[in-house]
């Protein structure tokens, strides 16, 4: 597997995790069956896809990207879909997460470039 393929699997894993977490809110503490099934299915798919990226990418790097990008995307979706507003410190913190993911990908020797 190439590094490009590993990042593609990671991107799909992030997408599945974001859909699952969005459905988690809609599941209303697992009292609504369809969002609950979507949550469980997406989380399972996300972890499955993540395992493929771990064939090439170091675990810590892949997980940092997976969780960091997921946090930012979920925050944006929650803002838009559920009207959960973000204050300035929250936005600054999300900016730092984005900066951290960028630093890892652009400068870290842990990831082959």
TrEMBL record:
Subcellular localization: Cell membrane
Presence of the UniProt keyword Ion transport in the record: no
Topological type in the membrane: Multi-pass membrane protein
Keyword terms of this UniProt record: Cell membrane, Membrane, Transmembrane, Transmembrane helix, Transport
Signal peptide: none
Transmembrane regions: 6-24, 36-54, 60-81, 88-107
Family: Belongs to the drug/metabolite transporter (DMT) superfamily. Small multidrug resistance (SMR) (TC 2.A.7.1) family.
Annotated protein name in UniProt: SMR family transporter
Organism of derivation: Massilia phyllostachyos
């Amino acid at each position: 597997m190439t590094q490009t393929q590993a990042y593609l699997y990671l991107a799909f894993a992030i997408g599945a995790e974001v859909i699952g977490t969005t459905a988690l809110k809609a599941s209303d503490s697992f009292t609504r069956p369809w969002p609950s099934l979507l949550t469980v299915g997406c989380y399972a798919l996300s972890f499955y896809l993540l395992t493929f990226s771990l064939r090439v990418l170091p675990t810590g790097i892949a997980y940092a990207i997976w969780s960091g990008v997921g946090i930012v995307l979920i925050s944006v979706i929650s803002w838009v879909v559920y009207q959960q507003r973000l204050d300035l410190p929250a936005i600054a913190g999300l900016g730092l997460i984005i900066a951290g993911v960028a630093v890892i990908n652009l400068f870290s020797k842990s990831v082959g470039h």
